[in-house]
Each structure stands twice: as structure tokens, then as C-alpha cells.
Amino acid sequence: MFLNLLKLRSRQFILLMIVGMCIFLPNEIVMAQALMPSDDEVNHIARQLYCPVCENISLDVCSLDACQQWRDLIRQQLADGRTEQEIKSYFVAQYGDRVLGEPPRRGLNWLLYLLPPVIILTGLGVMYAKLHRPTLAQPAHPDKRTILSEDPYLEKVAFDLENVKQHGNEKA
Amino acid sequence: MAMRKRNDSKITNKFWAVAVFIGVTAILVLVGLRLFQDRDPRIALGEKPGDFLLETFSGQVIDTTDLRGKVVVINFWASWCNTCDEEAMLLEAAWQLTQKEENAEVIFLGVAYMDTETASRAFLLDYGITYPNGPDLRSEISRKYQVHSVPETYILDRGGTLRFVKIGPFASLNEVLSAIETTLESPIN
Predict the structure, then answer these.
(1) What is the number of CB-based contacts under 8 A between chain A and chain B?
(2) Among A51, A56, A64, A65, which would you mutate to test the B interface (most chain B Cβ atoms within 10 Å of its Cβ)?
(3) Which residues of A touch B78 (CB under 8 A)?
(4) What is the pLDDT of residues B7-30, one digit of tens each?
(5) Does B13 touch chain A (CB under 8 A)?
(6) Number of domains in chain B
(7) What does the pLDDT read at residue B92?
(8) In-domain check, residue B116
(9) CB B103 within 8 A of CB B69
(10) Which tens digit of pLDDT belongs to each residue from B67-115?
């Protein structure tokens, strides 16, 4: 009788343990996951920052040990609750503007932002002006005088012919 | 009339061609200037690289203008640099030797180049570095010295003039000490 009771109690105890684990353990795991930022979150910021010691390689794809350290730093700062902007500002304060994938909008950097649209718009404007330039309607049979007035040589030939005609008539 | 219009059109085309040429040239000049600004040549021996403030990892602020009268050894390093660890131990040994005298004439400054603070602190702890070390905030110090890689070491004489440059790690303690000795003996500008 006692043994049966003990067995029943131990079964109940095991059942309770299982139920308890089902209730509490996932919460713990979820909480831990929530505290540690995912690779995607880290890479989202790392993509916007460039490795300061290599040429044109963003932090998310850089394989150097130094880049791994910087990605860990981003992860740590995200876990500390820092915003994306705060993390980027921290990197600029530490390593300078060169770490930014997008140059800050100040000084000569404005050229990078303004020149391409200005050049494209100017080009489009010139093309539009060329294609839609009003052209003078050309007569099907241009006026004889117009042709003559455009070419001084032809004008002189016409003048000489006129003279020859007149003199010829006079002789006749 | 038509001829005049044609001439006018030719003049307008020429004007646009010249304007576009000038515009493109101006852009190329500006881009070139910007590129050359970023790629200044290394500073030469005999030049004064300019002073800077170094805020050390222990919170001390060192102004190099206050170091006139002393030989200053400036070492750029990083925790991720493969050859910096051995050199750090050589520099620490040299630092200890030069600090034996009461009024030491030599000061060492370590500048952590493109490094994270956590990794830098761990590096200093691992190699037992005791001379002042600090981060190169906004890369301003390394830009002044035109540092391209690590380790690099610059030694200034008592007047702040650059007397010795070592690109890459020192090979031995003797090399470090002899560089310091030569700088100590050099006349002050």
C-alpha cells in the first residue's frame, strides 16, 4: 500500500517536473534569445559600416579578425540596448568617417550627393533641347533667290548670266 | 537669315561643348584633390608631425606639447596585429630600462590603431604593458603620422622633431635601445 502510494507520488512528481519544464524552460530560452541580438540584426548594421583597415569591404563580409571583433562589438552594443544610430556614431567617434558606408552630408562630401543628379538632369535637359528644337519648315521647292543668297558663288554666276543675257539681247 | 541662324546654332553648340568640358574638368580636379588629400605621403625625418592629445585607457590625458624636453617613442599597434605582441614585450622591456633613472628622458606612448577597446585592454593585460596607451580616436593621430599599417614606431627628439621611423616590428631590444640612444644624442631643432 505504501509502495503503491510512493509510486503514485513519484509519478506525480515526475509529471509535475515535466509540466514545469514545459512552462518555464522555453521562457528562459526565449529570454536569452531576446537578449542576444541575431546575426541578421548585427549584419544589418555591419553592412552600413566599412572595415577601417581594408579597402572597400563592408564589415558584414570582412573575414579579418579585426572585423570579427567589430561585429562582436556591434552585437554587444545591441545587447546593451543601443540604437543603430548610436552604434554608428560610436564607430565614427572611434575610427573616423571612413567607417561609414555612406559619407556624411557635409563639406566637399555634398559633391557626391549633388553632382550625379545635376549631371543627369543637365544631360537630359540638353537632350530634350536638341530633340525638340523648333526647325524651320523647308519648302518643297526652295525659292531660287533663297538658294542664291546662301551661296555667293552661285549668286555671282547668276549675276554674270543675267549680264550675258542682257548683252546678248542688246547685240541681237 | 537662315545662314545667320546656322552660325548662331554653331556658336551655341561650341558654347555648350566648352561649358561641358570645363564642368567635367572641374569635377575631375575636385575628385583628384579629394583623393590626394586622403593619400598624403609619409612624414619625413626632420619634420615636426604636430602635437596631439592621447586619452589613455586609464583615463589620463597626455598632451604631447607637455613632453618637450623628452624623447617620445610613439608606437602604433593593434590587438589583431600578428607581429605586435612580440614587439609589445620588447617595448615594455625598453620602457622599464629607460625608466630606471630618476628623471627619465624618454617617454613611451602606445596608440591602439583601429582596435576595439575591450580587445586593446585585454592585449595590454596579456603582455603586461605598463607605459601609457590609449585609443586613436577618430584616427586623428594615425592620420597625423600617415600610418598605413601596424606596427609602426616614431621617435621624436626633445624638440618634437621626428628622428626615427620604424615600419614593422622591432627585431630586438637592442634595436629599440639603439634607436632611442641615437635620438637622445641628436641635436635639438
Answers:
(1) 45
(2) A65
(3) 53, 66
(4) 777 787 788 888 888 988 888 888
(5) no
(6) 2
(7) 97
(8) yes
(9) no
(10) 999 999 999 999 999 999 999 999 999 999 999 877 789 999 999 999 9
ipTM: 0.71
| pLDDT score recorded for residue A19 | 63
Residue B46 lies inside a defined structural domain of this protein: no
Q: Which CATH superfamily is domain A36-101 in?
A: Cytochrome C biogenesis protein (1.10.8.640)
Q: Is A112 on the interface with B (CB under 8 A)?
A: no
Which structural domain range is residue B109 located in? 53-185
